[in-house]
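Lab notebook page, bench 4
Experiment: in silico fold of construct C2
Operator: M.H.
Input chain length: 390 residues
Purpose: comparison with the prior construct
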Amino acid sequence: MIKTFTQYTPPLIHFGAGKLELLPSLIKQYGQRVLILTGSGSIKHSASWRKFEKHLTAGNLTISRESITSEPSPELIDRIVDSYREPLPDVVAAAGGGSVMDAGKAVSAMLKYDSSVIHYLEGIGTKTHDGRKVPFIAVPTTSGTGSEATKNAVLSRVGPDGFKKSLRHDKFVPDIALVDPLLTLSCPPELTAATGMDAFTQLLESYVSASTTPLTDALAFSGLQSASRSLEKAVQDGYNLEARTDMAYASMISGITLANAGLGLVHGFASSIGGLFPIPHGVVCGTLMAPCMELTIRRMIRENKDHPAISKFAGTGKLFAPESGKNDFYYCEYLIEKLFVMSEKLRLPRLSDYGITENDFMAIIRLTENKNNPVRLPNEDFQTILAKRL
């Protein structure tokens, strides 16, 4: 019998190579004044983006621009919002990685408010947002966070008292997600690896989540199929359009599934570590995925060999394994080994590369949530996970 569930709807999606040329006409659906947020990196060197800018400047639009150079902070959002309240743009468009899209999402949500965004952040603020916003179009240029399909914007302040918290409302899902894999071709290998592992992690964590639904299961496995065959190919050959398209799809799907099924321990660490240290979100997820999944799977098998997530981990292992006809425990072990091999093959950085030491473990663990992991892990397992990727 199918269990009851609630499914949040994704944005209107335009997906595929060449879809960027739709953006000027999509903007005009909302009006003439557009605020465009971009990153400071590879998008500016993209042939597709340069071609798009010619169409944009010829489109009789009033264009304002802001550049997002790091993961967005409340102070950055407040500064941008204060600059564009009078007159309000008709639409906000963000073209970039997860940080750029999160910034655009937060800006569109706060333009109609007079107070700081920090008052509306989960776990920090005391005010409730009512969902009013300026229309928002998300254009991802990396394949990682899936922010183009989620209802939250992640903001952070880095330091000893730092945090990484969400501005969240059902109405913050972008009005339009325009996903053009051509925009990811110039993404460098190290960024492709980190963001790709972030998408892979989000798919697997939502697939085995304690809050999974039949719809998220189907979508997550579809994304896992794409990521399993193309993540490494995209890193090895960035101009492999088929691989880039697979990863753009996997990333977008991961946003839909995480918004509905939630995420597990890897992203619990990403939140705590990202607030304390200047480490990219994708790097945390990518480097900790293997040990988190290893300890989760092993504890689950010890405590409950009939746990439904075991068959899901095994099904994911089968996507990589050359042998067929083995039992679930074999494929679970294969998946663990594969994740560690990928960590080395993709040259994912170690935690110590960003100044983290064993002395920081307890501070990290105190802040790390374990919301939807299929099994609870004790603090000693948390320490083991961190030590394995120090």
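Observations: The chain has a mean pLDDT of 92. The first strand starts at residue 12 and ends at 15.
Next step: discuss at group meeting.
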